[in-house]
Amino acid sequence: MFIQPWDAALDDAEWQTWIAAGHDFGILSVNGLPGQAPVVVPTHFTVDGAALLMHLARPNPVWKTIEADSNVTFTVTSDYAFIPGPWRAKPGTEPTDGVPTSYYAAVQFTCQATIVDEPQAKAELLRRQMAHFQPNGDHAPIDPDQPPLRADAARYPRPAPGRL
């Protein structure tokens, strides 16, 4: 991501405060397997110190790519606007000579992904995420010795194919 010097974060506290203000959804980008396109996964996340925590379903194709190369990028964007060219035309020039641009807030992390596959550790990671997203605890218990939450189709039906 190209960042002009005047647009760079003033310090770590600036982006940390912005993330803490509710920007907890981003795009995980992972190098594709040889000959394949990169894998891009929109997902929720939480911050734990210097770590980003996310929980992804095992069938997600991103797992194989992370196993092959754990270098990933995670991008969070918000507060964006398209600025038409005429709005940026220099005084004394034709409005059509103005150059359009986009203004947005974004944080981009370059990370080394670590796959957590041990059942107790996965459960703890999911508990920490649920504490962030559902702090009142209004969710099923997270127990690695019990079926996953989505296994109960009556309580958590899967969306129909092709529907959002």
Automatic annotation (TrEMBL):
InterPro entries: Split_barrel_FMN-bd, TR_PAI2-type
Coiled coil: none
Low complexity compositional bias, start-end: 148-164
Residue ranges, annotated region (Disordered): 134-164
Name of the protein this chain belongs to: Transcriptional regulator
Organism field: Streptomyces gardneri
Lineage: Bacteria, Bacillati, Actinomycetota, Actinomycetes, Kitasatosporales
